[in-house]
Amino acid sequence: MSHLVVALAGNPNCGKTTLFNALTGARHHVGNWPGVTVEKRSGAFEAEEGLRLEAVDLPGTYSLSAKSEDERIAGHFVSQGKVDLILNVLDASNLERNLFLTTQLLELGKPMVFVLNMVDDAERKGITFDRAGLETLLGGPVIATVGNREEGIAELKAAIASVAKGRDPRVRDWSREASGHGPGDYGHDIEGELVKLQTELARDEKLAASVPNRWLALQLLENSKEAHALVAASSARQAIEAQLHKSLAFLEKHLGADGQTLVAEQRYGFAHGLVKEMVKTDTPSGETPTQRLDGLLTHRYLGIPIFVAILTMVYVLSFVLGKYPQDWIGDAFKTMGDALGAKLPPGELTSLLVDGVIPGVSAVIVFLPVIMILMGCISFLEDTGYMARAAFIMDRVMHLMGLHGKSFIPLIMGSGCNVPAIQATRTIESKTDRLITILVTPLVSCSARLQVYIVIAGTFFTPIKAGLAIVAMHFLGLGLAMLMGRLLRSTLFSAETAPFVMELPPYRLPVAKTTAIHMWEKGSIFLKRAGTTIFAGATLVWFMSRYPGIANREWSAELLRNQQTVQALQIPQAEKDEQLAELHLAHESRIVNTSLAARFGRVLEPTLRPILDPDHTRPEAWKDVIALTAGFVAKEIVVSTMGVIHGASDEPKEGEKLSPLQVALRDHAGLTPLTALAFMVFILIYTPCIGTVIMIQRETGSWAWAFFTIVYGSVLGWLLSWGTVVVGRMMGMR
Amino acid sequence: MTQDQGVPLSSLQPGQEGEVLGLHAQGPIRQRLLEMGFIRGAHLKVEKLAPLGDPMELIIKGYHLSLRREESSCILVALTA
């Protein structure tokens, strides 16, 4: 049985999603709209006993005129989709602007229910409504609700039920009424031209059947791209375009403005008249609470320090506090792996489980706490209205980099972990701004890369120089992100300009339930969509770095014999354990150094020679390539992989400053301070980890962009680390 | 520039008020501004500038909006206060 479909339409910040949650409870599905990465929420609810409806939450938009992706989706869905009823959510304290969208929705000729949401806010501001009057003028039930307290939901459901059954006396179909009445009246001159256009449009029966005629005629007057595209594909194209040309010329001459302006003026005229007649505003004079709060939060001098403080808090919550559950998860999996490794007989299956599957699952799940906390914070900031202020404060700087004010927070969060940072770009409305931010975020050095710097810089530099080098890496990352942002803006995306017209909504206290649902959604989407691919990637790298050595029976037998020999020795247990660990490491090292990954490393090594081995004195430079390959799975495992490759533990022994791995790197690997620095630069920029790549694919909806990031990162990384070597040598470094 | 021809919105100082005379923009920017309420005769008030001097915050149609200099310079207004 197919349900009737109710579409929730409304401006951004009108409380639509909270209302959607109140209607459907938590029983809803989150996916993407076909072909794009705009979230689509849908869920079933019972309007009355036995009447189930499907609610679809449209993206929040100010209009349906298809300039942005959100508007195109919303416009397309309500005008052509199988929508049976439109639920128009209006912010009760900002009615005039909200009604602009309503005038467009009314033209679709579908049954509508109107919601005056957050009516408590409006009442506090001294705004009162003549609901019966509004119902007459809008032609549908008007229900007052307070979405976050679930007030008015029962009445709303009853109204939806009666309209859905076609039995509500309040419903009027404006498209059937004689023109010159109701909200869709554009005045004598425009109406005359609309009739002429509609006559031409009606010549194409296919077109007439697919979209409401009047709606299309208006969209043409408004110069909508999508409407032009529809006409371009029509059989009556020439006649329609000729009439449109005539109509626009006529209107320009008689009303002194273009179609766009005239239609917008008429729409606002209706909205203004309606508000004037049916809404009484008795606002107490003086500043609103929002203005008072903004006096502080966007203050000329205090605004920035407060923003930095809030940002620091979010960072600490996500990456410092989030580190605890992350460590617990990591430790739990490691303990599990170690226990299984000790219990099960050594062999391929055990290795698959212990070195492949368990770390793979762990690599996915460790992201969860950080993602959920950071997304919770972002959702909180967004719902309070502070996110728009943060963008307001930072836009000047970000605009210089070719980005949007809202790009700032994701970029900074990228220094904790790129994966949730890329998820956080969803707050950026403009598609181009979002895409550029996503593409430059991987250049921001994350905490996993920090571990690699610490090991390498600690080996080759004095503590002070090491500290400087590590800080320099972070600035280099941010600087490159800025540069690439500008570059991408002026090259690939130069044609697409998104105007910066951003509402600063009133401050509101977010609903805990909405934030919780949001966190849960983000976490589960990550697990479902990204989790499987990351897991597959981790398993693939396990396979590459273990085969064929792991299947070598002789080596396994040798390890067992040696282990037994050590066990039989008459020495203290601690010493025994140490020797056993060394044996194990040597065995692992042998497997990895003869593996497919090692062969891959040898093949790739010549391309990296100018960076890692400029003097051709390092026969083992290919080992670095294996570590870099491992870094594709997760930057966290670069260090441990280097440990395995060089057969040296990365844990320092008691009382020693350098770990055995660091000693091995210094004494045997052949790296010099200069090539070590180049290696750090390369680690910073070359391909993002697989989690980030998958997230880029998810958030851009395209594998092409995901691969693009890998390629441009690798090329840029190569060039800059090569530059490091060249410049370093000129300065006499070795 | 005379009062009749108006001044670009970007030249207004915080606290100043005006009425929209017209838009000097084309394409999506024009459409967006119209939808957000910048129609002829609409009243607006500049609230403040961002700490770094751009964008500006203004009140139009009873709500708060921020615009970059790029956008606000294509809106012609007549000063009213």
Short description:
Chain A is an alpha/beta fold and 734 residues long. The longest helix of chain A has 35 residues, at 512-546. Chain B has a single domain, classed as Ferrous iron transport protein A (FeoA) (SH3 type barrels, Roll), CATH 2.30.30.90.
What features would you describe in this structure?
The complex is a heterodimer of chains A (734) and B (81). With 734 residues, chain A is α/β, with parallel strands linked by helices. Among the domains of chain A are: 4-176, P-loop containing nucleotide triphosphate hydrolases (Rossmann fold); 187-281, Helix Hairpins (Orthogonal Bundle), CATH 1.10.287; 550-594. Chain A is built from 33 helices and 10 strands. In chain A, the strands form 2 sheets. Chain A has a 7-stranded mixed sheet, sandwiched between helices. Chain A has a two-stranded antiparallel sheet with strand order 7-9. In chain A, strand 2 (29-32) and strand 3 (39-48) form a beta hairpin. In chain A, helix 3 (95-106) crosses helix 12, helix 15 (323-343) runs antiparallel to helix 16 and helix 25 (553-568) packs antiparallel against helix 26. The longest helix of chain A has 35 residues, at 512-546. Chain A is elongated. Chain B has a single domain (7-79), classed as Roll (SH3 type barrels), CATH 2.30.30. In chain B, strands 1-6-2-3-4-5 form a 6-stranded antiparallel sheet. In chain B, strand 3 (43-49) and strand 4 form a beta hairpin. Chain B is globular. Chains A and B meet through helix 3, helix 12, helix 13, helix 18 and strand 10 of A and helix 1, strand 3 and strand 5 of B. Strand 10 of chain A pairs antiparallel with strand 5 (63-67) of chain B, so a sheet runs across the interface.
Can you give the mean pLDDT of chain A?
A: 87
CATH architecture of the domain at 4-176 in chain A: 3-Layer(aba) Sandwich
Total E-strand runs of chain B: 6
Helix count of chain B equals 2
CATH topology of the domain at 4-176 in chain A: Rossmann fold
What overall form of chain B do the CA principal axes indicate?
Answer: globular
Strand content of chain B: 35-45%
Strand adjacency order, main sheet of chain B: 1-6-2-3-4-5
- The rounded Rg of chain B comes to 11 Å
Largest interface: A-B, 43 and 34 residues
Structural class estimated from helices and strands of chain A:
alpha/beta
Low-confidence stretches of chain A: none
Count of discrete domains of chain B: 1
Q: Tell me, what is the CATH class of chain B?
A: Mainly Beta
Helix content of chain B: 10-25%
The Cα radius of gyration of chain A reads 31 Å
- Helix share, percent of chain A: 55-70%
CATH topology of chain B: SH3 type barrels
User: What is the name of the CATH superfamily of chain B?
Assistant: Ferrous iron transport protein A (FeoA)
Strand count, sense and closure of the main sheet of chain B? 6 strands, antiparallel
